[in-house]
Amino acid sequence: MKNILSLTPPVTLSCFIAATFMATGQDASPAPKPLKALLVIGGCCHDYAKQKEILKAGLEERANLKVDICYSDDKSTKATFTCYDKANWAEGYDVIIHDECSADIKDLAVVNRILDAHRNGTPGVNLHCAMHCYRTAADVGKPAESGTNDSLWFDYLGLQSSGHGRQAPISITYANLPSLAGLANWTTINEELYNNVKVHEGTVTVAKGKQDNQETVVAWAHEYGDKKTKVFSTTIGHNNETVADAKYLDLVARGLLWSTGHLTENGQPSPGYGPAKAPVK
């Protein structure tokens, strides 16, 4: 598998023609339609009412993207989402952003219905507590065997996490990947460092986080299932201030563009998929 987050979409004749028009000063083809993303958000332990608006505005500012929201105001660990009710729930979307916190949803039929969209090729972006959702294993603190019902969600994510410690600043260090050019290492405000119970084979580290004397993978990417669906995840993003931080939104936007095949090798949006205006830092 090639370097995750550094795959270049194939050059097409239409792209070549558009580039030629721009070089000669002629009008280029109309900008492509915005990507369509579905943000599934809600559940326990976070200020999702505000974070849904922060994420929508921040991501739409950074890419040619339209974000629809599927929100639940249920603050329990059993929050459910109406958008999952039908079998083809992801139809019409280019990417799904999972930002749920539904740790006690364990029904295999429900979990498989959610995962079917990604098995069938719809890319996924997973934020923070999405890593602790849909935990079908009896003991999530022990590595689950890939390919079993215990590991359904973990196989999709590419990494198994079971918990976190206290809130404290986390030092973020990016991997040396060309597609991460321009993303500077940074330190968060008080945040939760998620553990790594198991990092799956083929998962590529995008960033590590260090808190006190513990260091774990905090952002990663991999390809899921027979269709090699691109999946990007980060465990960072508990507090509103972090979710609104330009450095965080830049990371998530870049992961989203990679997952949909719209990120170049040097970390820039593919032509037509960049921001309408420069994001405010």
Structure description:
- The structure is a single chain.
- With 281 residues, the chain is α/β, with parallel strands linked by helices.
- The protein has one domain: Class I glutamine amidotransferase (GATase) domain (Rossmann fold, 3-Layer(aba) Sandwich).
- It is built from six helices and eleven strands.
- The strands form two sheets. The protein has a nine-stranded mixed sheet with strand order 2-1-3-4-11-10-9-6-7.
- The longest helix has 15 residues, at 48-62.
- The two termini are 34 Å apart.
- Mean pLDDT is 89; it is low at 6-27.
In sequence order, what are the helices and strands, one letter per element? HEHEEHEHEEEEEEEHH
Approximate helicity band: 10-25%
Give the structural class. alpha/beta
- Looking across the biggest beta sheet, what order are the strands in? 2-1-3-4-11-10-9-6-7
Q: What is the number of E strands?
A: 11
CATH topology: Rossmann fold
| Individual helix count | 6
Uncertain runs are 6-27
Number of domains: 1
Please report the first level of CATH classification, the CATH class.
Alpha Beta
Cα-atom Rg, whole angstroms?
Answer: 18 Å
CATH superfamily: Class I glutamine amidotransferase (GATase) domain
Provide mean pLDDT, rounded.
Answer: 89
- Shape estimate: globular
Percent of residues in β-strands: 25-35%
